[in-house]
Structures are given as structure tokens and as C-alpha cells.
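Work package 3, deliverable 3.1, input record:
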Amino acid sequence: MAQLPSTRQALATGLWYDNAIFRQVLGICSALAVTNLMRNTLVMAAGVIYAASMSSLTMSLLRDATPRRIRIMVEILIIAFYVVILHLFLKAFLPEVSRDLGPYVGLIITNCILQGRLEAFAINNKPWPSFLDGLGSGAGYAAALIAIALVREPLGFGTLLGYPVMGAGWTRWTLMVMPAGAFFVLALLVWGCRYLSEPPQEGKR
Amino acid sequence: MMPTDIPPYAPWVILLGAVIAENMLLTNFLGMCSYLAISREMRAAAGLGAAVTVVMTVTSGLCYVVYWRVLAPLGLEYLQLIAFMLVIAATVQILEMALERLSPRLYFALGVFLPLITVNCAILGACLFLQIRNYSLIQSVCYGAGSGLGWWLAIVLLAGIRGRLQPARLPRGMDGPGIALVITGIMALAFTGLAGMLSIR
């Protein structure tokens, strides 16, 4: 990733070609935990886009001032700084969502996607491309989360964003609300995504 | 300062509950990244599980002390996330140095996994849960130990099943994380059957 990507390239890479969840299977803890309701999913997605882009920008600005040896600590502190702001913001303005999300907002700190982008890209690149890179991978994460929630909420509750969408006689699939349902939906999405992107290989097991 | 309403569960109930009914990985989805990445091989999976269990037990106790004895009396609860991360990073660092001196054999078995643990969300997750649920000190340590054991159990189970599946032919795109997630889903279903046994929330 030595050459500087254009704005479109940076976003497309994060959204599809290197989608953190479907391709690299990183940062899926929260993807599984918050996706049974679309409302929580949207808040979480927005939060990760914000944290990823801002921390990439900050890391990039500080890249020359950061000694190599303590860079992991610096990365964690930068991410934690933005996550604490997000956590307090949600507590103050969206208390209900904040309670639903519980520890998962705080757990953005240990989200491998953010750390991965800082370590792999922001620490070696100029601020603007780094910001776009963070934005792109955050957006890819958001898209994946929304895709999972789009399956889980209608099937599990018969609603989308709280509005009934499946008709009156809908029998709720309790499985979709349970953890097991989350694993199955993600497995199918990962499978589909890899199936579409990998060329068929003869004789490979 | 102490948590205001400590839940009335015996420590051993919390320990067992954290392994079986509220498995960190299978019901709270925490620590998935390293779980999927390191489960190809049984030895590595067991080593990582052991390291996670040790670190989680220690950090749970420390995070309880830091939150209720330092942050809460000073009114600095909002620094919780940063404080917990520092506790975890410091614990891992100290543990690594101690192991290197005291037991080189264990160090070589666990050593490579220790740095990975700092960013394992299961550890931070356990610290956050014990604060949200108002556990007492003993309950916190038991919760940390139980969560670690539960995580260890899950990764060893997955590694075993993946080992057995090695010769099987899988559909295109399904190998790797896809099949691991399906296995995890089935395991989660099995553990859901135990959920009513012990309640620790």
C-alpha cells in the first residue's frame, strides 16, 4: 500500500475489496452482538466510522512523533480517547441505546479493525489518505453490520427499526435473536462473499 | 467504595455460570478474532486458552480494585475504559517478564500469545461486565476465572472439530472462517441448552 489511493479507491477498498468483516473476518465480536436490532446496529456503525476515521487521522498526524517501540500503546490510547467521547455522548443523548449496547461501545477500543488500520496504514501515510482509509474501513464495517441486522431483525422480531414488516401472522424465529443465529447469518454472508470473489480452483480442497 | 447492590450469587455459581451458561465467546461473542485465527491447531489453541485464563483472572481482580477503590472514590468513572486498558496492558507485560524469568518452558509455550492478549476483547469485556453487574471482589475474580475457562473450552473444542474436519471437502468459499463460524453456531446452540441452569446476571 505504498502508492496513495484516490478517494474512491480508498473507500471501495474498505467497503468491498478488503471488507474487514467478510474478507478478513476481523472485529466481528460487536458485529455479532449488536445486530439483532437495526437501531442499535446503526448507532454502533456510526460510532465505528467516527472512531476509525478520527483515530486514523490522529495517528497519521502523530506518526513522526511516535517512537516505534511504544506505538501499540499510543494506538490504543488514541482509539480509547475517541471511544470515551463516543461512550459519554451516547450516555448523555441516547441513554436507551447506550444501555442496550452495554459494554460493546467500550469494546470498540479492542476492535481489531481499528488497530489493524492504524498499524497497517495510518502510521506510514499522510493524514488525508489515512482519514479516508479509516473512513473506508469503518464504512465497510458499517455495511456488513447493516447486512447482518437486515436478516436478523425481520426474521427474529418481524420488525425493522421497530416497524412491523413481515405481516401480522409472522412467527418469530427465536433462533435469529439467539447467539447461534448470529453465527449462522455471519457464516452464510462470509461464505457468499468469498464464493463471489474467489475464482474457482480446480483440484483444491 | 463498594458496589451498591451486589448480586446474591455464590462465587462458585458465578464461576460455573461463566463457563457454561454465559460463555464469553458463545453468548457474548467476545474474543472472536484470535479464536478464529488460532484455532487451526490444537497445541496453539490450548496454549492461548491457558494464557487468556491466567490474564483474565488477574485483570478481573485488578480492574475491580482500580474501579471501586481508585476511580469511583475520585469521581473519575469516565476514565474507566482507559484505566482498564492500561491495567490489562501492564498485567500482560509484567506476566511476560515474570514468566521469562521464572519458567522459561512455560514462557516458550505461552510467550508468543501474550502480546495478542492485550487486544483480546474478551479480557476488556470481562472487566466491563463485572463493573456493570456490580460484582464484589470475590465474585469478580471468579467471574474472570470462569470466563477464561469458558473461552479456553470453546477454543479447544473448535480446534478439535476443525482438526477432524481437515480431510473433508468443503464448498468453494466455505473453508477457513466460514466453516469455523458454522461450527461455532452449532456449539452455541448446544450451550444455549444449558443457559437456564445457572443465572448470573
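Residues 21 and 195 of chain B are 4 Å apart (CA to CA).
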